[in-house]
Every structure is written in C-alpha cells, then in structure tokens.
C-alpha cells in the first residue's frame, strides 16, 4: 500500500532543522494524584541521542519547588531513571514527593559521546527548560535545587557554582543547548560523593575495575571526561573542578556534601576540599561524613536517614512550608 504524501497542512507544520527541544508531553496522573511527565526531550543535537527528562509532581495545588536529580556513572554510564543500587528509586522518589517537592530526573551526554563541558551544558539546558515550561509542569521557576550522586554530584556542584560570566581559558560553561538562554541559578545543592578538584585527583590511583569482555578496556573516567589526562589538559581539569568557582561575585548557594569516609573511588578529601573552599567564600555548607562507607554508601547500615537528611535540606532551602 502506498503512503499518501504529506498534505499542505502537514508540510506547513514541519520545520528544518528539527527544533532543539520539545514541549512537555501530557502527564499521566497516578491513583495517588502524582502527575508524571515521562520522556520529555529537553535538548537535541544532530548526531546525538535526544536528551530526556522525567518530571514527577506531587498531588495537590502547585506550583511546587523542584529538585533536579543528576545520576552518576563516572560520566560514562548511568540513566536518569535509576539511583545507585544502594538507594531504591522508590525510597528516593517517594521521599522527595512526600516533602512537597517536584522531582526532575535528567539524562546528559556521556563522556565518550562528548567531552566536558557537554555534561554541564546539558544540566544547564535542563534547568532552563524547567523554568521555560514551569507553568505547564506545575513547578515554581524561582525555587529550584539540584541533587546528584558521584558524577552527578560533581555536575550538581558545578550547576550551583557556575554562572554565565564563568569560564576558564576560553571554555564556555553555560552552553546554548535546548532552550538557548535563560537563568540557570539554583537555591540549594546536595552533592553525594562528587569530585571537586580534578587536578588534585590526578594523583589518586584508580581502584581495580571490574572484569570486562575480552578485548574491551574500561576507559579511565577522568581522561574520558576531559578527552585527555589532567596533566595534558590542566586548563580543562581546572575548568571542570567545582573548587575553581567557589569565589564569585555572589555568595554560593547552600551546599550539603555527603560522603563515605572510606570511599575508594572518590576520596573523602574531595568533599573536604570543596567544603573548605565554600566556607572560605562565605558560603553555607554542611559536610556530612558517612563513617566507614565506601562509594555509593556501600557499608552504610542506614541509607534511609541519608536520603531523609538530604530531602529535608532541600525542602528547607526551597521554602517548603514557608
């Protein structure tokens, strides 16, 4: 059967190149009243997969403050839908929604798709998108925080600290992906065991990686992120380090840093360094050690309390109940 050609109306509706983002898809409302917007395209770039985000909005009258969740995975892997295996999605998502916060979970380009600052450009694009479509999503555009783990913690810290005027050695950090311009500032940051100083971390030996299929080598995550070693590109390593941006023209937003004291992948000292830099810049920062825990809080007997403290911190600084 031959397919009919597009009508004049269809052709008039078509655009080329394709739009850099799509408006929100219609929500699905669950029995508990939570509205879900799944798989929204917030940014596109020819040759790359579309960048997607999901939004969950609590039941009741909005607009609601929003938390942008940024997944980990060494910038090489990961998925907006899944927290680390030690943190059940139902626990994390449920705690955010129960606190009266909307949850925005974002994907971003992995490092072998595009090196830094592509990942930060995508996070910034997601924040711009949420603000641009806040009315459709039931979100308060003036009350947005960020929360990430591991690689996502690093990106959350950068999102909280980097502004339009920032850039190091010609590296533009705000980006023009998706909604190409607009405010990307946030009111609060939760950073779980993220990298803060890639230059200092260059001397920290990587722990043994899990076995890979024959002939496949696991990339060094820092070299993949930068497209080179930190020694070869110290300028880019500095540009990718949150500690570079703690002293700016405005005070940094409040930070909660949570980190296992026996983290073998990202040393606890990375959060100590960021906490010290934030305090030196006059910022409000809480550094919460998780005694004896490894990366992703392995070995911690009480993940629920870590989630609870993180959500309470965000709710307080985003003005829930104020």
TrEMBL record:
Q: Which UniProt keywords apply?
A: Hydrolase
Return the protein name. Answer: Alpha/beta hydrolase
Q: What is the lineage of its organism?
A: Bacteria, Bacillati, Actinomycetota, Actinomycetes, Kitasatosporales
Q: Where is the BD-FAE-like domain?
A: 53-278
Q: Recall the GO molecular function terms of this protein's record.
A: hydrolase activity
A single Pfam family it belongs to is BD-FAE
Q: Which InterPro entries match?
A: AB_hydrolase_fold (IPR029058), BD-FAE-like_dom (IPR049492), GDXG_lipolytic_enzyme (IPR050300)
